[in-house]
Amino acid sequence: MSGILEKLARIDRRYIYVVVAVAVVLPFLLRTKVSIRVSPPVVRAYEAIDNLRPGSVLLISIDYDPTSMPEIQPMLIAALRHAFSNKLKVVVMGHLALGIPVGQLGLEQVAREMGMEYGEDYVSLGYRPGYTALMVAMGRSIRDVFGSDYRGTPVDQIPLMKDIVNYEQIDLLLTLAHGYAAEYWAQYAGARYGQRIIVGCTAVVAPDLYPYLQAGQIEGLIGGLKGSAEYETLIGRPGVGSLGMPAQSLTHIVILLFIIFGNIGYFVLRRKR
Amino acid sequence: MKRLLPLAITFVTGMLIVVAFVLPHPPFGGLEDRFLNWYLIVVGFTMLLGVDSLVRMHISKLARRRPGWGYSVVLLVSLALTVIVGVWSWIGWRSIIHPVAPFMYIYTHVIIPLQATMFALLAFFIASAAYRAFRARTVDATLLLVAAGIVMLGRVPVGAYLTQKFPNFVQLPVIADWIMDVPQLAAKRGILIGAYLGAVAMSLRIILGVERTYLA
């Protein structure tokens, strides 16, 4: 018995990889469904969008790239569905050259699905370098940094952009971020220009944003795939986020079991020494 | 002079940006706008520098037949093809991210799977690392282990399912939310305040020319 327990402290990493792979794949194959409890930060993000009047402008900043696409893309899809169904005007931009096409894919998908018209209901400004300098410059004039949209059409020729000068005409900013972008938005656009902000981010970034959430510098927070699933639950359209919850649940359990096994083995070996 | 000029430029621009933040009126407000525009232009050029550096490094590796030079060939050919397809998309579709542009084909079928795969590998490494490193060696480590376990279970639906019959205050999602909202947040806020005080001090050192390591 003691020998078996000791072996628990020395499980070959390849077995761990196989078990994790099975834990991830199996729930997708079985199409398992789970009920999802919605957390207060996601409710606040949902309400921030839901309380906007029809015709309000929602700026979405694509601050993630394909590395975080599985976690954040479902948030983009759900938020766009929510915004378009509430007749909001959506402006999309991004700080990552490799991220903006991901946003474009999501935007085109939802716009097509909901019959939205480019230039009237939504616009994609594309990517510009500069990060924080860009955020500050947009507070002065969006046209100074985005003279044209992603197709090269001058911003002045786009009906939706006609009355948008700077943050004063942006009713809400949703930053979908996998890095520090959300903090920068809060520090530059929020603190300096009073821009209302909600954030969607990877699970690993979410804890960094709790101080901003509690201080009211961001109004809502959608964290990780679970956040995506919660938002999908709130809009009543389960999607990829909800589909991933059983796999995430099982994987967390598997990792916890391995941690427990490792500790049992560790204590047995320690007692023996 | 070689060191004095960059220090002087740093001091003048740094001080002007600080003054413009407090006094956003002419002439300072206009100067800040100008500096921001210059910065955006410089940032654009740094990308060219990055490409230049990458290409030079791999051409040198290829020319000297260093170990792994075959990967350099793959990189250079992929880079050239992506640029060609990007320019083709730009000319034909007015944008490289137009939904039917050839660049988007490369993006959707090569870049997305490659990047997503690299990141997905983390699941395996994290599981393996957690198994080997997460040991209850001390009281502190045990506290961390218990908190991590509660948050891991409380943040997924199974946590809510396992404790749904319990009173509200002992349900895993409620405890996980409390951990995130109170102890985690307090620690994070302390770290943030410390980090930003450090950033202010470092900025002042750079503006005043005390910190010169960026001059190499």
What is the helix/strand order of chain B?
Answer: HHHHHHH
SS class of chain A: alpha/beta
Whole-number total of structural domains of chain A: 2
* Continuous helix count of chain B: 7
If you had to describe this structure to a student in words, what would you say it looks like?
The complex is a heterodimer of chains A (273) and B (216). Chain A is α/β, with parallel strands linked by helices and 273 residues long. Chain A folds into two domains: 55 residues; 199 residues, Rossmann fold. Chain A is 53% helix and 12% strand. A six-stranded parallel β-sheet of chain A has the order 3-2-1-4-5-6, with helices on both faces. In chain A, helix 4 packs parallel to helix 5 and helix 4 runs parallel beside helix 10. Chain B is an all-alpha fold. Among the domains of chain B are: 54 residues, no CATH class; 81 residues, no CATH class. Helices cover 79% and strands 0% of the residues of chain B. Chain B is built from seven helices and no strands. In chain B, helix 5 crosses helix 7. Chain B is extended and about 65 Å long. The mean pLDDT of chain B is 91. Chains A and B meet through helix 2, helix 5, helix 6, helix 9 and helix 10 of A and helix 2, helix 4, helix 5, helix 6 and helix 7 of B.
